[in-house]
Amino acid sequence: xxxxxxxxxxxxxxxxxxxxxxxxxxxxxxxxxxxxxxxxxxxxxxxxxxxxxxxxxxxxxxxxxxxxxxxxxxxxxxxxxxxxxxxxxxxxxxxxxxxxxxxxxxxxxxxxxxx
Length: 115
Prior knowledge:
- Helices cover 40% and strands 19% of the residues.
- It contains 3 helices and 4 strands; from the N terminus they run αβαβββα.
- The protein has helices at 6-25, 45-59, 91-101, and strands spanning 35-40, 63-64, 73-79, 82-88.
- It has a 4-stranded mixed β-sheet, covered by helices on one side.
- It is extended and about 45 Å long.
- 8% of the residues are buried.
């Protein structure tokens, strides 16, 4: 699975701490009510499911049972209002999304106001 290496992980943790300190020191800067840090697994559907099961044991939380629409298989650990999620998207779902995205830009709405 292509996760952050030791250096990338350290940079991520440092960046998160720096962001938290910045938001705390600058209360006038808008901040979201919450956020989710997402990690996506790759591989065959079976390999992805095995990895999600492994991560669920590591973080000590239950698995999310996929709904019939998204069919994503995930595990989430909440640090309210921040969440850490590891997500598996079945290959058929990815393929359907990729096919849908081939239409991206084919229809353009008439924007009455631009930013």
